[in-house]
Amino acid sequence: MKVVIIEDEKLAAESLQEMILKHRPGAEMAPVLPSVEEAVEWFQLNTLPDLIFCDIHLSDGISFEIFRQITIKCPIIFTTAYNQYAIQAFQVNSVDYLLKPVKEAELVKAIRKYEDLQKNNFQDEMENLKHMLQTADSSFNPSRKTRFMVKSGQSIKSVSSEDAAYFLAEEGVVFLITFDNGRFIINYTLEQLEEQLDPAIFFRANRQLLVHIKAVNQVKPYFKGRLQLQIAPNGPEDQVVSSSKASSFKQWLDM
């Protein structure tokens, strides 16, 4: 069995490889593909594997973009930190959908499911599943992002979006700051976060800041119709809402 892992978190990829080889020691592991661009290039130059493990959010975008550019007919097991893409996943040859951190028992169950499908004509089974999903929910609309997988020392942990006080962009790097003052690098732009998070809870104050409504401690009038914010915990100083956004910001805070 030849396996490809598409994953931009090194520790998550290594953990996945270890579990796969533990339970299927004869598996041939291809190089880990950390981005949409590298995955597309690899599939253009190599024959398809028997099975793909694929994260959904990669360093340069959503992994579904790979399958829009390349025809993939082999089975896929998606691994992701949140569950709003379940139906899209099953529409691109997915045999299972595992939430991070991936549990060993769930991984083994998914591999067995893949092996059973192989015995029972995978392509026919997938076509039937896709038809059922399209019939059941042709108007599917993903829910908002509810958690993030972040690196903490040598491990990976889950942080709920409810615990994120604000997201701060500094010199091309985006940090997630929690209400208990945790600080974690995440592989998202503020633009991506703005689209994925609940707009009733998070507001894009300026080019550097996306803030949780409960993290806004104080709002003061500033020059030329702008607003100056005091953010907790230990929020960066001189965070300003532009005059063009001031009105919508006040409405968001119900001021």
UniProtKB/TrEMBL annotation:
Residues 240-255 have a biased composition (Polar residues). One of its GO terms (molecular function) is phosphorelay response regulator activity. The keyword Thylakoid does not apply. InterPro entries: CheY-like_superfamily (IPR011006), LytR-like (IPR046947), LytTR_DNA-bd_dom (IPR007492), Sig_transdc_resp-reg_receiver (IPR001789). Signal peptide: none annotated. Residues 2-115 form the Response regulatory domain. Residues 148-255 form the HTH LytTR-type domain. Residues 235-255 are annotated as: Disordered. SUPFAM superfamilies: CheY-like. PANTHER family: STAGE 0 SPORULATION PROTEIN A HOMOLOG (PTHR37299:SF1), TRANSCRIPTIONAL REGULATOR-RELATED (PTHR37299). This is DNA-binding response regulator. It comes from Planktosalinus lacus.
